[in-house]
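Hi R.,

Here's the chain you asked about this morning:
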Amino acid sequence: MKLKIVKGTRDIRNEELVRFQIIEKSAEKIFPLYGYNEIRNPIMERTELFAHGVGEETDIVGKEMFLLEDRRKRSLALRPEGTAQIVRNIITNDLMKQNKTLKYYYMGPMFRYEQPQKGRYRQFHQIGAEYFGVETPDADLELILMLRHLFNDVNLKGVAFQLNSIGCLKPNCRPQFKSNLVQFLKDNQHNLCEDCQKRMTTNPLRVLDCKNEKCIQIADGAPKIYEKICDECAANFKDLQNLLERHNVKYELNEKLVRGLDYYSRTVFEVYSSNLGAQSAAGGGGRYDGLFDIYGAKTVPAIGFALGLDRLTMLLDKPKPKSEGFFVIGANQEAVIKLVSEVRENGQKCLYDPHFASMKSQFRQANKAMAKKVLILGEEEIKNNQIAVKNMGTSEQITISTDQLNHQFDN
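And the predicted structure, written out as tokens:
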């Protein structure tokens, strides 16, 4: 049997894993400062959850979901995104009844059957946050400020925000724009790619962000949605822009930005970087004030975002190797393991050679492990209840009594 990894998946380890952990740990530190609590949902749901919420005509539901049947022939899907799950969690547990607002963040793998390419995989990793219960642009602002805080904390350079409003579902807003857009697309139908000729009737807004060169040229001449939205949505979008400017948030308007999920309304935004090449988007989000209605629940205004870690980590500087912890060296197995256990129980990283090779070999292993200090237990040290401590950075070596060991620990 020849072992092979599944196409579109990958093993993440070493330096690449460190990049993931840098962003994950930063999110775990920063998001709670804004009142967001972590939530963990299953990686599979009933297919209908995504079909109804994300939209049956979207590429995600129509082409990209990983589907399976349980033993009772019920259709299940590996989650392609996280928002619909959290909404399901809130509705099924009646969480809004107890709270005027809710804030959650999540991280974990998602699944879409896409063509694998650099930074895009069939199993990919996201960090996301959702804010429920506030309809004013203050919630939009908070999420964008939280993202900026995260990017600054991990020293992420070359990242920018793109912004648009896709209006609401009132007859004089997005539906009217869609009607105008469809007429425009019909006039240019012969130049559209095959996918966009289908989208023209099923999901016309998606034509605006097609990456086909001919479709891009056609979209450049299409009606601009934020020029056609209703007065209320226009005022909402203007208020958000004013808030962003007052908080010195740099952004670009992108009239072709629509996002790929049907549940979005009003504000949509993307995080992008030219350093990512063709796949320039590293995340995005927007409002979904009507998603609860789709599931037959009471209306709850909401906004959220998701970041693609697989792409975002490509923008991080190479992690610098850091010396840390201890390495215990000695020939007396019992004494070494006892000391290793003591160091670990004091909250310090500590390694040793389980094969108890020569002292020279053990020092090489300590170097390779990038230990900050080596604790040496020779016959004399054991006999006199002492430990030789070598600083691997300065090569300075001292001898201490065993009861002074705690002075060597990092706080």
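The mean pLDDT is 92.

Let me know if you need anything else.
M.
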